[in-house]
Queue: 4 jobs
Job 1
Amino acid sequence: MSHRTTIYDIAKELDITAASVSRALNNNPKISESTRKLVLETATKMNYRQNKLALALRSGKSFNVGVIVPRIDSNFFASIIRGIEEELYAHKYNVIICQTHEDEIREIENINTLLNAQVDGILMSVSNVSTENDRIIKRVIEKKVPLVFFDRKKNIDGVSSVTINDYDVSYLATKHLIDQGCTRIAHLKGNQSLEIFLNRFNGYKQALIDNGLAFDEKYVI
């Protein structure tokens, strides 16, 4: 069985204490930059792999963040996941990705799975059919697990969200078509229980009214 390199092996190689090696590996400000660099280079040379479980037990953190999206085969969500991963990787966090496939039961199971995995936070874009999952979301809050909605959100006290102004975007897109001479403009309204789709519909409708066109339900799909 091959020997697994430990901080004690690195300490012996560099003739410093194991505590100094540990501090250097964890970017402790008490360690000089030259020592930190030397420890990292030696750790790489000796194929050292940090014990994530031990680190989690010491720090009380799992260094994992859960991301829940409707699906990953979407350019929009794929690009968001990439950005999340790049930012978290820089801070030594891993990402656990879950898909709801627009299924509320699966969404609830995803949240439970992430809570059981003791993630340090959850980033979530709710599914089209999120109507009965407020209770599980409140469980996340009660467990004091940081939760942030993005793109699709629910209005729940204590939960932050990152979204775009869907009303203005829809309004401007509709107005652009009107300015091009279009008069019969269709709208794909989506699930109106979700704020993003409701705002897009309202922006579309208001743009028609403001520009002298009658709103007609037959153009709403």
Job 2
Amino acid sequence: GEPTANQPLVGHKGLVRYHIKTTGVTAHASMPEQGDNAIHKIANVVRQLTHFDFGVVPHPLMGLPTLNVGTITGGLNINSVPDEAEIGIDIRTIPGQTAESIQKQLQGALGNEVDVTNIASENSVLTDSRNEWVQQVYEVMETRLGRRPEPATAVYFTDGSVMKPAYGDPPTVILGPGEPKCAHKTDEYCSIENLAMVTDAYLEIMCRWCMSS
């Protein structure tokens, strides 16, 4: 049910999130030389992360991992040197990357004065597009889309990462009527035409799955 514009996808990137914290020494704003500004330090961290190189080869379907600085906090008031600052980062991973290996990369690049804490981690999902059931899903959608779907994956994360191992690692396809480019944006929408198409497709896909079980 994730937004794929009715294109069946055979996987998605993984997810790891970290809090990165810097510390300093507080002082009155009129005497900044007596303090150690933690916000200056976290600003330097953000700059270093802007074009962070994970040192990995692009995955044939998922491409390269991505990194986003999503939150930033620091300081108690405007007239004092902040002694603490923190950012939250979101990384979408490709197969072969782990939370532990990425944390080592971040710590090594940012230095020991920066505290890197992992707060979330979920694996990527990938099903071989040659799988028999995936090919059946392609057949179902081909009659509705007017063309044979090509193997592709989602750039975002889904519940498939949790559900796939919980149900014994079945072949997994991500398929839904929403527009992926509109996700988490103002006026996110789903067309009635796509909704009707995928509702009918879901029924046929479920019937085929039950008949093959």
Job 3
Amino acid sequence: MILYITPWLWIGVMIFLFLMWQIIDRLMQLKYIFSFLFAVDTVFASDFCEELKLKAKTEEVHLEPNHDILKIISKGRVYLNNAPSNKYKIESDFLVTGDQFIGYSEYEKFIFVAYFKSNGDSIDGWINSSQLKNTSLTNGPSGEEQMVFNIMPDIIKENKLSLLPSKCLKYELDSRDKTFYSIKVMNLKNRECDDKINHPFDIIVRKGGGEMYTNQGAKKDEYRRIKGK
């Protein structure tokens, strides 16, 4: 059986193919146009973000240092922003309900904050103040805490707790216990101190009393009294 295609059918097929080619060509052009517009929008958005950050830096109001611990009260994820606007969200950095962090400054309705993770890393950015609550707690040490921290080098030297010079030691103070301040004494990592051996130890100081104890040279939970200031 031989199929016979009329000239009109050939013409119809050619017109159809031509129209399809035109449609595909237009779609490709639109793709390039949208890509170009997206690139332009990204560039302008980046410029606006930098301008807003600069404006906020010159006009921001620093928070009261005695009340700088904030926490999230919004439900779900609260994203940090590169600038004081929800338009510049940092997709990888967010907090959740109950997270506490430090607030540094405020611009319009946004607060610049820093959150410290359990592994020591930190993230920072701007969050709308409507999503936060001030805990009325302070990040800075009390007068007694600061005093305890300041006398640690002399206490270690007087009680001969370490042979390392003070410049090779670092201290971490924990004041969460109701009775004692706990100070962890560790070796500072730098070129001068890396080759010196120092086993970490703790010093605890009774709050309001000044009595001091350490587990240096003993098991972790075995403390002996030492001379205080």
Job 4
Amino acid sequence: MLDAVLFDLDGTLTDPATGITGSFRHALASVGHPVADDVDLTWMIGPPLRHNFDRYGLPEHLYDEAIMAFRTRHTEIGLFEASLHDGVVDVLDQLVDHGIVLGLATAKPLDQAHITLEHFGIADRFTVVGAGIADGLPRSKGDVVADALTELGHVAPLAGDVKVAMVGDRLHDIHGGRQNGCVTVAVEWGYAEPGELDEHAPDHRVANRPELLDVLTRLHLDGTDEQVA
């Protein structure tokens, strides 16, 4: 039986590509490092901002200014350029109907997470929201998951008969869930890079929303925890 399911946000519940890549382009241009329109930045969807700027090669002394520019543009514009994946609301509603507690575990700052949930009309499905920024400090996905579990009344990492699933589309979601003793479920419709999910081997892997609902329902109703092909 599942005690709860934690969901990643960007790439898992929503398609944020236009807003996130647009905000990254704005941030990089604002610190004197403009990016050509034909450069693919979708790999930036999911990981923490500092990780992305480091991988891009931005000088470290520009991180804070770039992060501020990203957040300003993303809060005002980028959040509202996202779309909700088809079928997500049905999955959430059916899980709630089964009595499963839902939580969010996202790298977004807390205010942006709440704005996004309210914007798409799904805030009432979630009991807790774990966010990537807490007390003004960046958090790893493992820390975010631990925060959400703590808010749900569990001790992280999980032990004993407590079973919580972590659903996400990137390696950070898999690692964050695994670090905290969660069953990890990777969705294939997000923004994982080629070979990423193969390399990091989640407990379950699903190609579409009906498969996701099936896996989570089986985990809840009969405790089945076998790898899905």
